[in-house]
Design goal:
By secondary structure, this protein is of the alpha+beta class. It has one domain: Chitinase A, domain 3 (Roll). The protein is built from four helices and seven strands. The longest helix is centred in the N-terminal third of the chain and has 21 residues, at 2-22. The chain is globular, with a radius of gyration of 15 Å.
């Protein structure tokens, strides 16, 4: 089991390096090109494209702002573990721009996804540590914690504020 995770970690680091040095594409961008995606189990869980699950009736409307500038609010309290930056998580999510344009959504693809928290944008690495397994969080990520001045063309412009609804399915 440890060898499998070591291999996964090495693969993730290689992908992250490629992304940093040559630019990233989201899963939606790949799908827009018409190239098939290759999900690998158990990292990706097949689900219906129904959108986010229910929010807690007591979920607040106010965001908490962290020292880094990340804004978040807990939409559903989870009961499981909170991830650390060193963990791999399985999530469902929807990402939008300030104008509401959806740029990526695991719900639309009908499958959750797993990834190491150190392999994503800084706003996700920080934000997912505030929610427990089984919970749902809304993130407002400023450009410097997202894709920065380079953006992620063509869907994410430079320095864009990103909005995410994220359901934390599992801390691995």
């Amino acid at each position: 089991m440890i060898h499998r995770f070591a291999g996964l970690a090495a693969s993730c680091l290689a992908c992250l390096a490629a992304c940093v040095f040559s630019g990233c594409e989201t899963a939606s961008q790949i799908a827009d090109r018409g190239e098939p995606q290759t999900p690998t189990a158990p990292a990706i869980r097949q689900v219906a494209a129904e959108g986010p699950g229910p929010q807690d009736a007591a979920a607040g409307t106010e965001f908490t702002t962290t020292a880094s500038g990340l804004k978040y609010r807990i939409l559903r309290e989870g009961t499981g573990a909170k991830p650390t930056s060193a963990d791999t998580v399985e999530v469902h999510y929807k990402g939008t721009l300030d104008d509401g344009t959806v740029f990526d959504s695991s719900y639309d693809r009908g499958e959750s996804i797993s990834f190491p928290l150190l392999g994503v944008i800084k706003g996700w690495t920080e934000g997912l540590q505030y929610v427990r397994e089984g919970g749902m969080i809304e993130l407002e990520i400023p450009g410097d914690l997202g894709y920065g001045p380079g953006g992620s063309p063509p869907k994410i412009p430079a320095n864009a504020t990103l909005h995410f609804i994220v359901e934390l399915l599992e801390v691995q």
